[in-house]
Amino acid sequence: MDASVQQRIDQLVKTNKVMVFMKGTKLMPQCGFSNNVVQILNILGAPFETCDVLADPDIRQGIKDYSNWPTIPQVYLNGEFVGGSDILIELYQNGQLQEMIQVALAS
Hints:
Glutaredoxin; 4-stranded mixed β-sheet; globular
């Protein structure tokens, strides 16, 4: 991955307590998996930022290299990779996600 791409991703991950790399935007998700993540975060009332990987091919590939995770969306809390849609759904259903977000926002 190009150093400038890594720096851009680092900046987004480290400056936003809840950061989602997704297809589309939080107002207009462009895939079902990205929509799942947006809906869960909205239900929890969590403030979050998004990066549309469809608008930036360098970020689209770079985020996969950055996290060593092959799929999008990707969710980061306090600079730490949490996972994608399936993991977020599981964490939400078992009640862990709410707590994780509260901790992230409080720090």
